[in-house]
Amino acid sequence: MRNVLRWAMSALFVVAGVAHLRSPAPFVAITPDWVPFANEMILVTGVLEIAGAIGLLTTRLRKAAGLGLAFYALCVWPANFKHAFDGIALGAVPSSWWYHAPRLALQPVIIWAALFAGTVTDWPFRRRG
What is the structure's pLDDT at 129? Predict the structure, then answer.
């Protein structure tokens, strides 16, 4: 199960990273005002997502990648809140709470998935004894 999740997370982060690099404008639009150099930050995060995805698939880098991607997912959570509460329209992305509520609620699951895929935690599948 961990291996399947690892590949799925890697694919997700590669797609997201490429999206950040190819089309940064929607991500800049939802970046909170207190984030400095928003344009540059979006490009850097795109590179970091791709690097983290590769790291998850590399045994030696797996744990660091899991920690890094979990921290990254935590750090971008404010952008998800801004997107939801400011009602920012982003093309094909729905602007209703049917999209935003699950998206906000699933961010902790993404954080856990990065930690689990990166072998940082075994919870809740740890064997007792």
Answer: 59
